Amino acid sequence: MTHFLDIHKTDAGELRRMLDHAAAMKTARAGRPKGMPDDESPLAGRMVALIFEKPSTRTRVSFDVGVRQMGGQTMVLSGNDMQLGHGETIADTARVLSRYVDMIMIRTFEETTLQEMADHATVPVINGLTNRTHPCQIMADILTIEEHRGPVAGKKVVWCGDGNNVCASFLHAAGQFGFDMVFTGPPTLDPEAEFIEGARAKGVSVEIERDPIRAVADADVVVADTWVSMHDSQTTKERRHNQLRAYQVNTDLMARAKPDALFMHCLPAHRGEEVTSEVMDGPNSVIFDEAENRLHAQKAIMRWCLGV
Ligand code: CP
Ligand code: NVA
Q: Separation of 99 CA from ligand 1 center, angstroms?
């Protein structure tokens, strides 16, 4: 079974082929109305379940539209409305869903839920975000970087703020695509050592630099994300804001990076917190290209999973 669970678990050559495929599919339908199907219908006759145990705008809409453009059908399910949220095991849910649908995308809390779904499903399972990683986002982000700046290999990507799930998938991608990363944030919010060491083991540089100004020197890409993720307790909000305030991406910080450094954010953003509106709406920001590229990258991921 070909699951898409994480970037470091997927062969680097396959990841590259997926991105090339995504770019080709994007070009092929440029300028078409969003609801018009692609020329090919690789998902004709396929039913895809999209399960959300957390809120979503981009993941929900981009997967739904992507499946339809490729001729398939979707079913969007909320974890709470399913028996899954009321005691049915993940394993049994996976076995049952596999009798009805051809592929499962799940956004959940614990990584173990995703893994259990994958272990027991007899159809491909895609990670639509867990507390620990967000691989579909970073596939879209690499596509975006390469569209704007050419090959990502050898570039310097600086992550500002919380070493969270999105940061973890960026570190996975650094190892697989061969780019360097710098993390700048408070020591209490460092990415897990496993993610840092995993990237280093693949031969790329991962630095921790507490001073955000020093961190962004020569950066090709500066990335921010929310200071409080969906799985973080709201009781930690004030403490997180206090710890992270010094890592806000604003025009002063962007001025310390390369003049053409891209600003990226997976969204949703909190304007005036982790990033200012000036940067989000500024000339170096590619945030809405990133959002669009979720669609194209995920279409390639789904085709890879199904082998179509
Ligand atoms: N970036 C992202 O995954 O957005 P949603 O939470 O809206 O899906
Ligand atoms: N780090 C964020 C990403 C949202 C797409 C979260 O997990 O809430």
A: 28
**If you measure from the C-alpha of residue 226 to the centroid of ligand 2, how many angstroms do you get, rounded to a whole number?**
7
Structure tokens at 54: 């957390």
Mean pLDDT for 274-285 is: 98
Residue among 294, 295, 298, 301 to mutate when testing ligand 1 (max atoms within 8 A of CB): 294
Give, rounded to a whole angstrom, the gap between the first and last alpha carbons of the chain: 14
Residue 211 corresponds to which tokens in the numbers above? Answer: 């001073």
Which ligand 2 atom is at minimum distance from the Cα of 230? 8
The finding on whether 229 has its CB within 6 A of some atom of ligand 2 is yes
pLDDT in tens, 15-36: 999 999 999 999 999 999 999 9
Q: Give this prediction's pTM.
A: 0.98
* Residue 203 φ/ψ region, left for φ over 0, alpha for ψ in the -120 to 50 degree band, beta for the rest: left
Sign of CA dihedral 294, 139, 107, 296: positive
**pLDDT, average across residues 85-107:** 96
**CB distance 284 to ligand 1 below 6 Å:** no
Q: What pLDDT shows up at residue 222?
A: 99
Q: What is the mean pLDDT of residues 120-136?
A: 98
- Separation CA 63–CA 150 (nearest Å): 26
Q: What is the 3-state secondary structure (H, E, C) of 100-143?
A: HCCEEEEECCCHHHHHHHHHHCCCCEEECCCCCCCHHHHHHHHH
Indicate which residue of 266, 296, 298, 303 is catalytic: 266
Extended strands (E) in 117-212: 125-127, 156-160, 180-184, 206-208
pLDDT at 85: 83
